[in-house]
Amino acid sequence: MDLSKIYSMQDDLIQRLVSINDKGEMIATVNGLEFSSVFQPIVDCSKRIVALEGLIRIKDSVGNNVNPYEYFKNINDNDLESVISTLICGKIHTHNFAMSHFSNKLLFINVSPVTFAILSNNEQAILNFLDKITSLKLNPNQIIYEITEFKERDIENIVNGKNILEKFNILTALDDYGADYSNEYRALKIRPPYLKIDKSIIDMCDSGCDSDLKEAIKVAQDISAITIAEGIETENAFNKCRDNNIDFFQGYFFDKPLSASELKSKVNITTAHDLKRM
């Protein structure tokens, strides 16, 4: 896919679509839709914040919420629109993250398998991204790309892209493991450094059935991946995941997704550890 028009020095398409709102947050406007960032904390077993996941919020021209999952699902077969939307999300997430006092943590960013394969195999896209995060005083090893549960088109390109990004110290996560196409085959093929276990598995564990959780943990062990339990909403779910030696945790039990301006008033529990390979 030719990305030259997107990255043209004379006409930076992505830059033209973003602006700063009255709260000091970067937002974007695309085809009458407003994109903004929120961030949900990821914590360790002591509930210390170790990372944030950037999540997109979308509103239409009259202020109605647009479901981000449905939006990206609907454009999944339109490569150009998917790439532009993903680059926009990455730009506003990294900017707003860098402006927060959590900018020394890790930032997880969602990307569909098809778009990941396109961008991670494109030297121009990688170099442009490295330039942008350097200008924000971020390091490449702070960025984790979450490959979502959508269907892939060419898994070999995903594997190749993942290996290319690792040369630049940019790592990947497999998002929503246990849902849709985010399964054991994909995990064993891609071998991401992080495995995010879907809320459906966590809910089953919360209800007393932890067999699927144990299977997910076994897959993570087979590929030496750090585990993150998603969608934790109760203390019981947190305790059960912790007892099963899950590494990190995310969900409303700890905190809701927060806007960049809300992050400014958020007091960290303690100095967090950087996530490291175990």
Summed over residues and divided by their number, the pLDDT gives a mean of: 89
The proportion of residues in beta strands is 15-25%
Structural class: alpha/beta
Oligomer: single chain
Strand order of the largest sheet: 3-4-6-7-8-9-10-11
Tally of distinct domains: 1
What is the N-to-C succession of helices and strands? HEEEEEHHEHHEHEHEHHEHEEH
Radius of gyration: 18 Å
Anisotropy-based shape: globular
Q: Residue ranges: pLDDT <50 for 5 or more in a row?
A: 269-278
Describe this structure in words.
The chain is α/β, with parallel strands linked by helices and 278 residues long. The chain has one domain: EAL domain (TIM Barrel), CATH 3.20.20. 38% of the residues lie in helices and 23% in strands. It has eleven helices and twelve strands. The chain has an eight-stranded mixed β-barrel, surrounded by seven helices. The protein starts with 12 loop residues before the first helix and ends in a 14-residue tail after the last helix. 43% of the residues are buried. Mean pLDDT is 89; it is low at 269-278.
List keywords for this structure.
single chain, 278 residues, alpha/beta, TIM Barrel, eight-stranded mixed beta barrel, 11 helices, 12 strands, globular
A few lines on this structure:
It contains eleven helices and twelve strands.
Give the arrangement of secondary structure elements:
Layout: H1 13-17, E1 18-20, E2 26-30, E3 33-43, E4 49-59, E5 65-66, H2 68-74, H3 79-98, E6 106-111, H4 113-120, H5 123-135, E7 143-147, H6 155-167, E8 171-177, H7 184-190, E9 194-197, H8 199-206, H9 211-222, E10 226-229, H10 235-243, E11 248-250, E12 258-259, H11 260-264
Helix pairs in contact: 3-4, 4-6, 8-10
